Amino acid sequence: MTRTTASASIEQNPLLAILLMTLAMLIVPVMDIIAKYLSAELPALEITFGRFFFQFLICLVLALASGRLTRLRGKQPLINYLRGILLALASLSFFTAVKYMSVATAISIFFVEPMILTILAALLLKEQVGIRRVGAIVVGLLGAIIILRPNIAEIGWVSLLPVCTAVLFSFYLVINRLYPVTDDLLTIQFSAGLSASLLLGGALLFGAFFQVQDMEFVRPTSSQTGLLFMIGLISFAAHGLVVAAFQRGTASLLAPLQYVEIVSATLFGYLVFSDFPDGPTWIGIALIIGSGLYIAHRERKKKFDDQIDTVPEI
Predict the structure, then answer these.
(1) 99 located within any domain
(2) Is there a contact between 19 and 194 (Cβ–Cβ < 8 Å)?
(3) pLDDT of residue 47
(4) Is the distance from CB of 258 to CB of 1 less than 8 angstroms?
(5) Do the domain assignments include residue 151?
(6) Domain that residue 194 falls in
(7) Closest CA to 185 of 177, 175, 193
(8) Is residue 205 domain-resident?
(9) Gyration radius from the chain CA atoms
(10) CA distance 299 to 75
(11) Could you read off the pLDDT of 38-96 as tens digits, one per residue?
(12) Alpha carbons 208 and 215: distance in angstroms, whole number
């Protein structure tokens, strides 16, 4: 998820922020549902390439139309390209996962991300982690184990791919903490689309040349190409909605709304594939959501306490 600070030139509007964030979380699973549908005939690598390639084309067309092509290099191009590579690998991992499991289950497991981010922040950024957040991490990981247990038995270690996605996305967020985003939305999306397309396109060429299974390019039909374009468009639109939401509302207001994604994934998964989480999976989901919300609460409290500590005495 993209996290940004509110722009001083944009008026705060909590209600509009909530609506924008909710809309983003409602449409993101549609992208994953399409990816799962396409995975029956196209390799996950090709689907992921399609997502970023069409995202890149959309950004390029908008840049040409607005006369902003020369500004797309950005202020920190190498960091932007690194962000794109991490997102490409995370998306590839997730699209591969949904080929074998329901979208709702994969997304639920992915939401161990706040726990993994807390661990990485402690190890790499030397952030202090109290016993309460450690307890929340343990509870969240327990929830993931509850969800994973039957999936590992049924489909093997591929069920750990959503965890891999969470790890990669956590590294993406660590990069954002080390190098705060300084470029505009179009530049960030263009850089991510370009670097991801080059990486994934190169992997497709490698797979085709050496005839590596699940890495060979399969010529899509016109309808499949249209669906690949839809994935890229949804990715572009959802990212824009999240950024617009965080420009108009605070992180503490909007962070809990990310879990709407589980609800919409469950709904669309049931309507398209008749997939519905069982009882133990819902217990695991509840533990992950609860621990994620508690970690967010502790982070907000810590930031507030730090601000109090830095206020000079009068």
Answers:
(1) yes
(2) no
(3) 98
(4) yes
(5) no
(6) 14-126+156-276
(7) 193
(8) yes
(9) 20
(10) 29
(11) 999 999 999 999 999 999 999 999 999 999 998 899 999 999 999 999 999 999 999 99
(12) 7
Q: What is the reported pTM?
A: 0.91
Whether the CB-CB separation of 300 and 252 falls below 8 Å is answered with yes
Q: 203 with 45: CB under 8 angstroms?
A: yes
The span from the CA of 40 to the CA of 99, in Å, is 7
Q: What is the pLDDT of residues 246-302, one digit of tens each?
A: 989 888 788 889 999 999 999 999 999 999 999 999 999 999 999 999 988 877 776
Are 2 and 255 in contact, with CB atoms under 8 Å apart?
A: no
2 assigned to some structural domain: no
Q: What is the 3-state secondary structure (H, E, C) of the chain?
A: CCCCCCCCCCCCCHHHHHHHHHHHHHHHHHHHHHHHHHCCCCCHHHHHHHHHHHHHHHHHHHHHHHCCHHHCCCCCHHHHHHHHHHHHHHHHHHHHHHHHCCHHHHHHHHCCHHHHHHHHHHHHCCCCCCHHHHHHHHHHHHHHHHHHHHHHHHHHHHHHHHHHHHHHHHHHHHHHHHCCCCCCHHHHHHHHHHHHHHHHHHHHHHHHHHCCCCCCCCCCCHHHHHHHHHHHHHHHHHHHHHHHHHHHCCHHHHHHHHHHHHHHHHHHHHHHHCCCCCHHHHHHHHHHHHHHHHHHHHHHHHHHHHHHHHCCCC
User: Total domain count for the chain?
Assistant: 1
The Cα angle at residue 154 between residues 224 and 25, in degrees rounded to 5? 50
Distances (CA, A) of 266 to 131, 228, 270: 33, 22, 6
